[in-house]
Amino acid sequence: MAARVASAAFPSGDDLAAAYRRLSAAYEQTLRYAEDVKGLYAQVQRSVCQSLLGLANALEAKDAYTRGHSDRVGASSRSVAVALGLRPQEVEIVGQAGLLHDIGKIGVPETVLRKHGELDAQEWALMRKHPLIGAQIVSPFEFFATGALAIRHHHERLDGSGYPDGLAGEAIPIGARIVAVADVYDALTSNRPYRAALPREAALEYLARQAGRTLDGRAVAAFVALARESPPANPHVGARRALAARDAATPR
Ligand SMILES: [Fe+2]
C-alpha cells in the first residue's frame, strides 16, 4: 500500500517525460490557435476598414469637392505621425483616422455640403455634427477606439475655439491634432464650393502662423518639413485665382 502511494506521488522518469511531451504539444497547439486567431482578427480589422473606406468613397461621390481629400489627409497624417515618432500601431490608426475623418458628412444634407457661399447658422449647426456622427459610425469597432477619438476631435483647436467639445492644448488627442493640420492644409489648397484654392506656399505660411495658436506646433513643423521635402500632389492648387487666406481659413 505504502509503495503504491509512493509511486502515485512520485511518477517515474518515463511518466514525467510523457507528461512533458503532452504538455509541450498542447502548448504548441495553443500557440498555433493564438496565431490563427491573431490572423483572423487582423483580417476582420482589414475588412472593417475596407467597408469604412467604401463609406468614405460614397461620401466623396456625394460631395465631389471633397474627392481625393480623404486619401490626401490620410497619407499626410500617416507621414506626420511617423515624423513625430509615434509607434507603428499608432501611425496606422492615425492614417486610418485621417482617411475617415469626414465620414460623418454622410449624415449631412447634400444641400448643405454643396452650398456655394456662406452657411447660415442652422446649416453650420448641421455641418458641425459631422465629427460626432463620424465617431458614432466607427464606435462599434473596439480596435479603432483611438481612431474614433481622432475623428471626433479633428475640428478642435489648440486655443479651445474648435468643436464639438471645445478641448484645448494636449487635452486634444494627438491623432486629432495631426489630422487637423493635414485637413486644414488640404482644405486651403483645394477648390471648394465657397472659395478657390490657395497656392501651396500661402497655405504653408498660414499653417506656420497658426502653429501653437489653433494648430499643434510640432505637427505643423513636421508637416511643413515634409511638404518642403516632397510637395503633396494636389490637382486644385493654382487651378483658379487664389483668395485671401482670411477667406479660406476654416475647413468645413
Ligand atoms: Fe471635418
The percent of residues in helical segments reads: 55-70%
Shape: elongated
Calculate the mean pLDDT score and round it.
85
Domain tally: 1
Number of helices: 12
Helix/strand order: HHHHHHHHHHHH
Q: How many extended strands? A: 0
CATH level-1 class: Mainly Alpha
Bound molecules: fe (ii) ion
Distance between the termini: 86 Å
CATH architecture: Orthogonal Bundle
Rg, Å, rounded:
26 Å
**CATH fold name:** Hypothetical protein af1432
Quick summary:
Helix content is 62%, strand content 0%.
Descriptive notes:
This protein is mainly alpha-helical and 252 residues long. It has one domain (10-248): Hypothetical protein af1432 (Orthogonal Bundle). The protein has twelve helices and no strands. The protein has helices at residues 2-9, 13-62, 69-83, 88-100, 110-113, 121-127, 130-138, 145-152, 174-188, 200-210, 217-229, 245-248. Helix 9 packs antiparallel against helix 10 (200-210). The radius of gyration is 26 Å and the shape is elongated. The relative contact order is 0.10. The model is unreliable at 235-248 (pLDDT under 50).
SSE diagram, text form:
Elements: H1 2-9, H2 13-62, H3 69-83, H4 88-100, H5 110-113, H6 121-127, H7 130-138, H8 145-152, H9 174-188, H10 200-210, H11 217-229, H12 245-248
Helix pairs in contact: 3-4, 3-9, 3-11, 4-8, 4-9, 7-8, 8-9, 9-10, 10-11
Fe (ii) ion binds at residues 101-102, 130, 154-155.
Task: For this entry, give a set of tags.
mainly alpha, 252 residues, elongated, binds fe (ii) ion, Hypothetical protein af1432
